[in-house]
Amino acid sequence: MTEPHNGQTREPRTPRAQADAAQDLAAAYPHEVRAAVLRAVGEPMRLETIRLRAVGPRDVRVRIEQTGVCHSDLSLANGKLAQKLPAVLGHEACGTVVEAGAEVTNVQVGDRVILLWITPCRHCYACTHGQPYLCDTASSGSSEVYAVAADGEPVYPGLAVGSFAEQTVVPCNSVVPVPDDIGSEAAALLGCAVMTGVGAVMRTAQVEPDSSVLVIGLGGVGLSVLQGARLAGASTIIAVDRHAAKAQAARAAGATHFVPADEDMKKAVRGLTGGRGADFAFDCVGLAQTIRDAWSLTRRGGALTVVGIGGKDDVVSFSALEMFYFARTLHVCVAGSIDGSADLPWFFELIRSGKLDPGGLVTGHGRLTDVNQKLELLASGEAMRTLLAPGRP
Length: 393
Ligand SMILES: [Zn+2]
Ligand SMILES: [Zn+2]
Prior knowledge:
The chain is of the alpha/beta class. The protein contains ten helices and 18 strands. It has helices at 15-28, 71-77, 184-205, 220-231, 247-252, 265-272, 288-296, 320-326, 340-352, 371-379, and strands spanning 31-38, 46-52, 59-68, 87-88, 92-100, 112-115, 147-148, 154-157, 167-171, 175-177, 212-216, 236-241, 257-260, 278-283, 298-306, 329-332, 362-366, 385-388. Strands 3, 5, 6, 9, 10, 17 and 18 form a seven-stranded mixed beta sheet that branches. A hairpin with a 7-residue loop joins strand 1 (31-38) and strand 2. Helix 3 crosses helix 4. The chain is elongated, with a radius of gyration of 22 Å. The chain starts with 14 loop residues before the first helix and ends in a 5-residue tail after the last strand. The structure holds zinc ion (ZN) (2 copies). One zinc ion is lined by residues 70, 72, 91-92, 192.
Protein backbone atom coordinates (compact mmCIF):
# COMPACT_ATOMS: atom_id res chain seq x y z
CA MET A 1 0.00 0.00 0.00
CA THR A 2 1.23 3.50 -0.78
CA GLU A 3 2.61 5.25 2.25
CA PRO A 4 1.30 8.74 2.83
CA HIS A 5 3.70 11.62 2.60
CA ASN A 6 5.18 12.13 6.08
CA GLY A 7 7.09 15.33 5.55
CA GLN A 8 10.45 13.55 5.50
CA THR A 9 10.42 11.79 2.17
CA ARG A 10 11.61 13.88 -0.76
CA GLU A 11 9.07 15.19 -3.24
CA PRO A 12 9.09 13.51 -6.65
CA ARG A 13 11.11 15.65 -9.05
CA THR A 14 9.21 15.61 -12.29
CA PRO A 15 5.58 16.66 -12.77
CA ARG A 16 4.92 13.18 -14.22
CA ALA A 17 6.30 11.45 -11.11
CA GLN A 18 4.31 13.82 -8.95
CA ALA A 19 1.12 12.98 -10.82
CA ASP A 20 1.83 9.23 -10.45
CA ALA A 21 2.43 9.60 -6.71
CA ALA A 22 -0.82 11.55 -6.35
CA GLN A 23 -2.66 8.83 -8.25
CA ASP A 24 -1.19 6.09 -6.00
CA LEU A 25 -2.24 8.03 -2.92
CA ALA A 26 -5.76 8.52 -4.30
CA ALA A 27 -6.04 4.76 -4.93
CA ALA A 28 -4.81 3.87 -1.44
CA TYR A 29 -7.03 6.48 0.25
CA PRO A 30 -10.11 6.76 -1.97
CA HIS A 31 -13.00 7.78 0.34
CA GLU A 32 -13.46 11.49 1.01
CA VAL A 33 -15.31 12.27 4.24
CA ARG A 34 -15.74 15.24 6.57
CA ALA A 35 -14.08 14.73 9.96
CA ALA A 36 -13.26 16.68 13.12
CA VAL A 37 -9.45 16.59 13.14
CA LEU A 38 -7.35 17.19 16.27
CA ARG A 39 -4.02 18.64 15.07
CA ALA A 40 -2.49 19.64 18.41
CA VAL A 41 -3.23 18.84 22.05
CA GLY A 42 -5.27 21.58 23.72
CA GLU A 43 -6.44 23.08 20.43
CA PRO A 44 -10.00 22.86 19.14
CA MET A 45 -10.68 20.22 16.50
CA ARG A 46 -11.14 21.51 12.97
CA LEU A 47 -13.64 20.24 10.43
CA GLU A 48 -11.61 18.96 7.47
CA THR A 49 -12.05 16.70 4.48
CA ILE A 50 -9.90 13.59 4.92
CA ARG A 51 -9.56 10.51 2.70
CA LEU A 52 -10.08 7.11 4.36
CA ARG A 53 -7.91 4.15 3.41
CA ALA A 54 -9.24 1.59 0.97
CA VAL A 55 -11.22 -1.26 2.53
CA GLY A 56 -9.08 -4.40 2.85
CA PRO A 57 -10.46 -7.96 2.59
CA ARG A 58 -11.26 -8.09 6.33
CA ASP A 59 -12.27 -4.43 6.84
CA VAL A 60 -15.55 -2.59 6.85
CA ARG A 61 -16.37 1.03 6.07
CA VAL A 62 -19.04 2.39 8.39
CA ARG A 63 -21.21 5.51 8.13
CA ILE A 64 -21.45 6.93 11.66
CA GLU A 65 -25.10 7.41 12.72
CA GLN A 66 -24.60 8.35 16.39
CA THR A 67 -21.48 8.97 18.45
CA GLY A 68 -21.22 9.94 22.10
CA VAL A 69 -18.82 12.56 23.42
CA CYS A 70 -16.92 10.71 26.17
CA HIS A 71 -14.49 11.74 28.90
CA SER A 72 -11.78 9.71 27.17
CA ASP A 73 -12.15 11.99 24.13
CA LEU A 74 -11.56 14.92 26.45
CA SER A 75 -8.48 13.19 27.92
CA LEU A 76 -7.11 12.55 24.41
CA ALA A 77 -7.85 16.14 23.32
CA ASN A 78 -6.08 17.66 26.34
CA GLY A 79 -3.13 15.25 26.28
CA LYS A 80 -3.94 13.33 29.49
CA LEU A 81 -4.09 10.21 27.30
CA ALA A 82 -1.52 9.83 24.53
CA GLN A 83 -2.56 9.75 20.87
CA LYS A 84 -0.59 10.16 17.65
CA LEU A 85 -1.67 13.33 15.84
CA PRO A 86 -3.34 14.50 13.70
CA ALA A 87 -6.19 12.29 14.80
CA VAL A 88 -9.94 11.90 14.54
CA LEU A 89 -11.31 11.20 18.02
CA GLY A 90 -14.65 9.60 18.93
CA HIS A 91 -15.00 5.94 19.98
CA GLU A 92 -18.55 5.44 21.34
CA ALA A 93 -20.52 4.88 18.17
CA CYS A 94 -23.19 3.13 16.15
CA GLY A 95 -23.12 3.18 12.36
CA THR A 96 -24.20 1.43 9.19
CA VAL A 97 -21.87 -0.74 7.11
CA VAL A 98 -21.54 0.84 3.64
CA GLU A 99 -18.73 -1.37 2.32
CA ALA A 100 -17.38 -4.75 3.41
CA GLY A 101 -14.21 -6.54 2.30
CA ALA A 102 -14.40 -9.83 0.38
CA GLU A 103 -13.55 -12.00 3.44
CA VAL A 104 -15.94 -10.32 5.89
CA THR A 105 -18.54 -12.77 7.25
CA ASN A 106 -19.82 -11.30 10.54
CA VAL A 107 -21.69 -8.35 8.97
CA GLN A 108 -22.87 -7.19 5.56
CA VAL A 109 -23.57 -3.91 3.81
CA GLY A 110 -26.64 -2.25 5.33
CA ASP A 111 -26.17 -3.76 8.82
CA ARG A 112 -26.17 -1.39 11.76
CA VAL A 113 -23.18 -2.02 14.01
CA ILE A 114 -21.60 -0.97 17.29
CA LEU A 115 -17.92 -0.05 16.92
CA LEU A 116 -15.58 -1.54 19.51
CA TRP A 117 -12.58 0.43 20.79
CA ILE A 118 -11.02 -2.74 22.14
CA THR A 119 -10.55 -5.47 19.56
CA PRO A 120 -9.09 -8.55 21.27
CA CYS A 121 -6.53 -10.54 19.27
CA ARG A 122 -7.73 -13.80 20.94
CA HIS A 123 -4.15 -15.13 21.06
CA CYS A 124 -2.18 -13.15 23.69
CA TYR A 125 -1.87 -14.07 27.38
CA ALA A 126 -4.72 -11.78 28.48
CA CYS A 127 -7.02 -12.97 25.70
CA THR A 128 -6.42 -16.64 26.50
CA HIS A 129 -6.84 -16.06 30.26
CA GLY A 130 -10.32 -14.55 30.29
CA GLN A 131 -9.30 -10.88 30.12
CA PRO A 132 -9.73 -9.86 26.46
CA TYR A 133 -10.30 -6.24 27.54
CA LEU A 134 -6.61 -6.19 28.54
CA CYS A 135 -5.43 -7.57 25.18
CA ASP A 136 -1.78 -6.72 24.39
CA THR A 137 -2.69 -5.26 21.02
CA ALA A 138 -6.13 -3.86 21.92
CA SER A 139 -5.21 -0.27 21.18
CA SER A 140 -2.65 -0.79 18.41
CA GLY A 141 -5.13 0.44 15.79
CA SER A 142 -4.94 3.97 17.21
CA SER A 143 -1.33 4.30 16.04
CA GLU A 144 -1.96 3.00 12.51
CA VAL A 145 -2.60 5.44 9.66
CA TYR A 146 -6.21 5.07 8.54
CA ALA A 147 -6.64 8.24 6.48
CA VAL A 148 -4.80 11.16 4.93
CA ALA A 149 -5.52 14.87 5.18
CA ALA A 150 -5.90 17.07 2.09
CA ASP A 151 -2.14 17.74 2.11
CA GLY A 152 -1.32 14.01 2.26
CA GLU A 153 -0.42 14.05 5.94
CA PRO A 154 -1.22 10.75 7.76
CA VAL A 155 -4.23 10.77 10.10
CA TYR A 156 -4.80 8.37 13.03
CA PRO A 157 -8.09 7.10 14.52
CA GLY A 158 -8.57 7.98 18.22
CA LEU A 159 -8.89 4.73 20.24
CA ALA A 160 -8.83 2.93 16.87
CA VAL A 161 -12.37 4.07 16.00
CA GLY A 162 -12.37 7.70 14.80
CA SER A 163 -16.13 8.28 14.96
CA PHE A 164 -16.08 12.09 14.94
CA ALA A 165 -16.38 11.80 11.16
CA GLU A 166 -19.03 10.97 8.58
CA GLN A 167 -17.44 7.53 8.09
CA THR A 168 -14.58 5.37 9.31
CA VAL A 169 -12.75 2.19 8.21
CA VAL A 170 -12.08 -0.53 10.81
CA PRO A 171 -11.30 -4.28 10.90
CA CYS A 172 -14.50 -6.36 10.73
CA ASN A 173 -13.86 -7.88 14.18
CA SER A 174 -14.16 -4.34 15.61
CA VAL A 175 -17.89 -4.22 14.85
CA VAL A 176 -20.87 -6.05 16.34
CA PRO A 177 -24.24 -6.13 14.52
CA VAL A 178 -27.17 -4.39 16.23
CA PRO A 179 -30.63 -6.06 16.20
CA ASP A 180 -33.44 -4.08 14.51
CA ASP A 181 -35.29 -3.44 17.76
CA ILE A 182 -32.34 -1.64 19.40
CA GLY A 183 -32.15 2.08 18.53
CA SER A 184 -28.95 3.66 17.23
CA GLU A 185 -28.64 6.06 20.19
CA ALA A 186 -28.80 3.22 22.71
CA ALA A 187 -26.42 1.16 20.60
CA ALA A 188 -23.85 3.98 20.45
CA LEU A 189 -23.92 4.37 24.24
CA LEU A 190 -23.46 0.63 24.72
CA GLY A 191 -20.14 1.05 22.93
CA CYS A 192 -18.48 2.82 25.86
CA ALA A 193 -20.42 4.39 28.78
CA VAL A 194 -23.01 1.68 29.35
CA MET A 195 -20.66 -1.23 28.73
CA THR A 196 -18.12 0.28 31.11
CA GLY A 197 -20.52 1.34 33.87
CA VAL A 198 -22.73 -1.73 33.94
CA GLY A 199 -19.70 -3.99 33.46
CA ALA A 200 -17.93 -2.31 36.41
CA VAL A 201 -20.82 -3.36 38.66
CA MET A 202 -21.67 -6.79 37.26
CA ARG A 203 -18.24 -8.03 36.18
CA THR A 204 -15.46 -6.05 37.87
CA ALA A 205 -16.93 -5.56 41.35
CA GLN A 206 -19.66 -8.24 41.19
CA VAL A 207 -22.05 -6.27 43.38
CA GLU A 208 -24.35 -8.47 45.48
CA PRO A 209 -28.12 -8.11 45.99
CA ASP A 210 -29.22 -5.99 49.00
CA SER A 211 -25.80 -4.35 49.25
CA SER A 212 -25.06 -0.63 49.56
CA VAL A 213 -23.37 1.11 46.64
CA LEU A 214 -21.69 4.51 46.44
CA VAL A 215 -21.00 6.17 43.07
CA ILE A 216 -18.86 9.33 42.86
CA GLY A 217 -19.05 11.29 39.57
CA LEU A 218 -22.15 11.26 37.38
CA GLY A 219 -21.15 11.43 33.75
CA GLY A 220 -22.34 8.82 31.26
CA VAL A 221 -20.29 6.12 33.01
CA GLY A 222 -21.36 7.09 36.55
CA LEU A 223 -25.04 7.03 35.56
CA SER A 224 -24.47 3.63 33.96
CA VAL A 225 -22.92 2.39 37.21
CA LEU A 226 -26.13 3.49 38.96
CA GLN A 227 -28.21 1.54 36.43
CA GLY A 228 -25.90 -1.45 36.95
CA ALA A 229 -26.31 -1.23 40.74
CA ARG A 230 -30.10 -1.25 40.34
CA LEU A 231 -29.77 -4.25 38.02
CA ALA A 232 -27.61 -6.06 40.59
CA GLY A 233 -30.34 -5.58 43.22
CA ALA A 234 -28.44 -3.19 45.50
CA SER A 235 -30.82 -1.79 48.13
CA THR A 236 -29.03 1.47 48.95
CA ILE A 237 -27.58 3.34 45.96
CA ILE A 238 -25.93 6.66 46.81
CA ALA A 239 -24.98 9.04 44.00
CA VAL A 240 -22.44 11.83 44.59
CA ASP A 241 -21.72 14.73 42.25
CA ARG A 242 -20.74 18.38 42.58
CA HIS A 243 -23.64 19.41 40.32
CA ALA A 244 -26.93 19.20 42.23
CA ALA A 245 -28.77 19.47 38.91
CA LYS A 246 -27.85 15.83 38.26
CA ALA A 247 -29.96 14.59 41.20
CA GLN A 248 -33.00 13.92 39.03
CA ALA A 249 -31.06 11.92 36.40
CA ALA A 250 -29.35 10.02 39.23
CA ARG A 251 -32.67 8.98 40.72
CA ALA A 252 -34.01 7.99 37.30
CA ALA A 253 -30.91 5.79 36.87
CA GLY A 254 -31.57 3.99 40.15
CA ALA A 255 -30.03 6.13 42.92
CA THR A 256 -31.95 5.91 46.18
CA HIS A 257 -30.09 8.97 47.49
CA PHE A 258 -28.25 11.95 45.98
CA VAL A 259 -25.50 13.62 48.02
CA PRO A 260 -23.80 16.83 46.81
CA ALA A 261 -19.99 16.60 46.72
CA ASP A 262 -19.32 19.18 49.45
CA GLU A 263 -17.76 19.27 52.90
CA ASP A 264 -20.71 17.37 54.43
CA MET A 265 -20.51 14.53 51.91
CA LYS A 266 -18.66 12.02 54.11
CA LYS A 267 -21.01 12.54 57.04
CA ALA A 268 -24.03 12.15 54.78
CA VAL A 269 -22.77 8.92 53.16
CA ARG A 270 -21.84 7.40 56.53
CA GLY A 271 -25.30 8.32 57.83
CA LEU A 272 -26.87 6.36 54.98
CA THR A 273 -24.68 3.28 55.50
CA GLY A 274 -25.06 2.62 59.24
CA GLY A 275 -21.86 4.56 59.94
CA ARG A 276 -19.83 1.82 58.20
CA GLY A 277 -19.44 3.12 54.67
CA ALA A 278 -20.67 1.42 51.50
CA ASP A 279 -20.24 -2.26 50.69
CA PHE A 280 -19.20 -1.27 47.16
CA ALA A 281 -17.86 2.13 46.09
CA PHE A 282 -17.12 3.34 42.56
CA ASP A 283 -14.93 6.29 41.61
CA CYS A 284 -16.02 7.50 38.18
CA VAL A 285 -13.92 10.68 38.20
CA GLY A 286 -10.31 9.46 38.24
CA LEU A 287 -8.76 12.06 40.56
CA ALA A 288 -6.58 11.11 43.54
CA GLN A 289 -8.96 13.10 45.74
CA THR A 290 -12.14 11.34 44.61
CA ILE A 291 -10.43 7.92 44.74
CA ARG A 292 -9.38 8.69 48.33
CA ASP A 293 -12.92 9.87 49.19
CA ALA A 294 -14.44 6.70 47.72
CA TRP A 295 -11.85 4.58 49.56
CA SER A 296 -12.63 6.24 52.91
CA LEU A 297 -16.36 5.75 52.33
CA THR A 298 -16.01 2.01 51.66
CA ARG A 299 -16.75 -0.13 54.71
CA ARG A 300 -14.16 -2.39 56.36
CA GLY A 301 -13.93 -5.44 54.13
CA GLY A 302 -15.77 -3.68 51.28
CA ALA A 303 -14.59 -3.09 47.73
CA LEU A 304 -13.63 0.07 45.85
CA THR A 305 -13.64 0.01 42.05
CA VAL A 306 -11.78 2.76 40.20
CA VAL A 307 -13.51 3.40 36.88
CA GLY A 308 -12.33 6.94 36.02
CA ILE A 309 -9.05 7.40 34.15
CA GLY A 310 -6.58 9.62 35.98
CA GLY A 311 -3.37 11.49 35.26
CA LYS A 312 0.10 9.99 35.64
CA ASP A 313 1.20 12.67 38.13
CA ASP A 314 -1.87 12.42 40.35
CA VAL A 315 -0.66 10.14 43.15
CA VAL A 316 -3.05 8.31 45.47
CA SER A 317 -1.65 7.41 48.91
CA PHE A 318 -2.66 4.67 51.32
CA SER A 319 -0.93 4.09 54.63
CA ALA A 320 0.33 0.57 55.21
CA LEU A 321 -1.62 0.36 58.46
CA GLU A 322 -4.95 1.46 56.97
CA MET A 323 -4.61 -1.14 54.21
CA PHE A 324 -4.41 -3.84 56.87
CA TYR A 325 -6.97 -2.39 59.22
CA PHE A 326 -9.74 -1.70 56.70
CA ALA A 327 -9.11 -4.87 54.64
CA ARG A 328 -10.73 -3.28 51.58
CA THR A 329 -10.39 -4.68 48.09
CA LEU A 330 -9.28 -2.34 45.31
CA HIS A 331 -10.52 -3.16 41.80
CA VAL A 332 -9.68 -1.31 38.62
CA CYS A 333 -12.16 -1.42 35.75
CA VAL A 334 -11.05 -1.37 32.12
CA ALA A 335 -13.96 -1.27 29.67
CA GLY A 336 -16.24 -2.82 32.27
CA SER A 337 -14.25 -6.09 32.16
CA ILE A 338 -16.49 -6.80 29.17
CA ASP A 339 -15.79 -8.78 26.01
CA GLY A 340 -17.66 -6.62 23.49
CA SER A 341 -18.46 -9.12 20.78
CA ALA A 342 -19.41 -11.88 23.24
CA ASP A 343 -21.32 -9.78 25.79
CA LEU A 344 -23.24 -7.18 23.78
CA PRO A 345 -26.17 -9.58 23.09
CA TRP A 346 -26.69 -9.76 26.88
CA PHE A 347 -26.95 -5.93 26.93
CA PHE A 348 -29.47 -5.99 24.05
CA GLU A 349 -31.64 -8.34 26.13
CA LEU A 350 -31.43 -6.03 29.17
CA ILE A 351 -32.63 -3.11 27.05
CA ARG A 352 -35.50 -5.17 25.60
CA SER A 353 -36.66 -6.23 29.05
CA GLY A 354 -36.61 -2.61 30.28
CA LYS A 355 -33.91 -3.28 32.87
CA LEU A 356 -31.43 -0.95 31.19
CA ASP A 357 -32.19 2.47 29.71
CA PRO A 358 -29.21 4.00 27.86
CA GLY A 359 -31.49 6.88 26.76
CA GLY A 360 -31.51 8.07 30.38
CA LEU A 361 -27.90 9.22 30.03
CA VAL A 362 -28.49 11.58 27.13
CA THR A 363 -28.52 15.28 27.94
CA GLY A 364 -28.07 16.69 24.46
CA HIS A 365 -27.72 16.15 20.74
CA GLY A 366 -25.61 17.87 18.14
CA ARG A 367 -23.88 17.81 14.80
CA LEU A 368 -20.24 17.22 14.01
CA THR A 369 -19.67 21.00 13.98
CA ASP A 370 -20.72 21.14 17.66
CA VAL A 371 -17.98 18.77 18.86
CA ASN A 372 -15.70 21.37 20.51
CA GLN A 373 -18.57 23.03 22.33
CA LYS A 374 -19.86 19.67 23.55
CA LEU A 375 -16.38 18.70 24.82
CA GLU A 376 -16.23 21.98 26.78
CA LEU A 377 -19.60 21.21 28.32
CA LEU A 378 -18.25 17.82 29.37
CA ALA A 379 -15.11 19.42 30.83
CA SER A 380 -17.25 21.78 32.93
CA GLY A 381 -18.94 18.74 34.50
CA GLU A 382 -22.40 19.88 33.41
CA ALA A 383 -23.05 17.45 30.56
CA MET A 384 -23.74 13.78 31.12
CA ARG A 385 -23.86 12.45 27.55
CA THR A 386 -24.14 14.31 24.28
CA LEU A 387 -24.72 12.41 21.05
CA LEU A 388 -23.55 13.70 17.67
CA ALA A 389 -24.92 12.49 14.35
CA PRO A 390 -21.97 12.93 11.94
CA GLY A 391 -23.29 10.73 9.11
CA ARG A 392 -26.54 12.65 8.73
CA PRO A 393 -26.72 14.94 5.70
ZN1 LIG B 1 -15.48 6.34 26.17
ZN1 LIG C 1 -5.03 -10.38 22.85
